[in-house]
Amino acid sequence: MKWGEEEIGVLVDNEGVKKAVEELMGAGDDAKERSRRAKELGKLSHRAMYEEGSSYSKF
Asked: Is this model's pTM higher than 0.85 or not?
């Protein structure tokens, strides 16, 4: 199974959860890129909410 895919009715065992968490939070290049992108999106969302930001002005 790949990230973003879902199978209904499939149970995941402890080892499967452990593997997924390690892949998501690990030190690999993919995990580092996800972390970098999450930080970037966080900064963009904060800017949008400040006065004069795109989301602020739509209220």
From this structure: no
